[in-house]
Amino acid sequence: MKLGVIGCGKMGSALVEGAIRSGAVPAAKVSGCDAYPEAAKTFATTTGATFAESISALNADTYLLCTKPNQAEAALGAIPAGEALVISVAAGLSTAWLEARVPAGVRVIRCMPNTPALVGKGAAAYCRGKAATAADAETAKLLLGSVGLAVELPESLMDAVTGLSGSGPAFVYVMIEAMADGGVRAGLPRAEAIKLAAQTVLGAAAMVLETGIHPGALKDQVTSPGGTTIAGIAELEKHGMRSAFIEAVTTAARRSAELGGS
């Protein structure tokens, strides 16, 4: 694979750093360009990749499109015609939209990563365009999986992915902040409360992923009769915490559909 990165901001850099670190692609086979040349030069210095002056100079067979959505059309039009794959992380752009704007012979895959990819803990979904192959899907999984979890889903579910894992980190940050506030209210120093809350969320998430046990069953393991945990859970239920999270995800998914015109 010769990987060309179009848009060398935080997400593009995170994905490439992960791919290089995991051995998915050597730095010598990666080049990047950006509308702001200094960003591309910084990207090249950070990752060990090559700096390219333009999209046509990337000399790639796989392109990682990491531009803002309003910059995507011009970027896609600058890709040379021929056998190539575009993996787009530009928010809200459907495979049909992408396919209508790439040159002849270029295949597309649409992805929805999230910001924890910046620390190697991302959660991403991807879907194939009409001409994309199983090998193309494996390429997307390889790149996205180098910075976290990557799953292939039908495009009809991408708005749901946006509502859950795309917007979800912000919901969890609010929860961590609130838990830390509770710790402070109970007497903990602020710095320690934030660390304990964040580590508690990290540990609980790892338990779900590593054990494969349903989160409800894991909750029951912590919840002894008449104890502190069930008292706290009863308070959460009284204030509608569960329904609030459900509504947050579904509302974000609905807004994603509105913005994307789907």
What would you say this structure looks like, in words?
By secondary structure, the protein is an alpha/beta fold. The protein folds into two domains: about 5-155, Rossmann fold, CATH 3.40.50; about 165-260, Orthogonal Bundle (ProC C-terminal domain-like fold). The protein contains eleven helices and eight strands. It has helices at about 10-20, 35-45, 70-75, 95-100, 135-145, 160-165, 170-185, 190-210, 215-220, 230-240, 240-260; strands at about 5, 30-35, 50, 60-65, 85-90, 105-110, 120-130, 150. It has an eight-stranded mixed sheet, with helices on both faces. Helix 1 (about 10-20) links the parallel strand 1 (about 5) and strand 2 (about 30-35). Helix 1 crosses helix 5 (about 135-145), helix 6 (about 160-165) crosses helix 11 and helix 7 (about 170-185) crosses helix 8 (about 190-210). The radius of gyration is 21 Å and the shape is elongated. It starts with a strand and ends with a helix. The mean pLDDT is about 95.
